[in-house]
Write the structure tokens for this entry.
Amino acid sequence: MFETTLREWRNRRGMSQMALAMAADVSPRHLSFLESARARPSTDMVLRLAEALDLPLRERNGMLVAAGFAPQFGDSDWQSPQMAEIRQAARLLLEAHAPNPAMVLDAAFGILDANVGALRLVAMTPGAGIGSNLVDLVYQPGPVREAIVNWEDVAGYLMLRLSEASRRHGPSSAATQVLARARRQPGATALDQGAVSPRGTVLLPLEFRIDGKITRWFTTVTSFGAPQDALAEEVTIEQFHPVTSQSA
């Protein structure tokens, strides 16, 4: 029901009724009536409240449905015709970044696509590749985790990003489920919820052991502008850049 959904999201964002009313330019009295089901929202009101709550498009659709309205944003599958242009643009970025690793990730760090360099890294775990989850590969005991020399730093940073994705998308999201899996892995409870130790560097490097040699990388994250589809909003392209010529 809409009133329950609205109240839950407001509480998750740590906002009082007054704060949300001010952010959405709604009277506190009317917001109180909406949360108690004494008033029903219009489509515009639902979208204004969702904007004030900083909800992703997928969750805005959910709030619209809870209020009895049709979703207004697409929710496409990665392989759907609607995503063809985004798949093509992502593939161009992946290929242009070769031979350095690059991969396309969804909001829960599922690998939607990857270039050859990235596939070689994840393939250290037998059977891993497109369709695998990057967080699972980093956290679960296995060849990928064992190859990360500064695992505590990298895993802490990754947990911080995943925790933010969980906060944005809510407790029933795929990101929250992946976060729960990560926290059950050995060593995860010792991490300070994503806090990384000071290193005196501008960027936290990924130190990866390949063929007995330690390579060092930093990453950039690319997203698509002005998305009107839930998946298009969530997709990011993670590109690995060598810190040293030896890494390259």
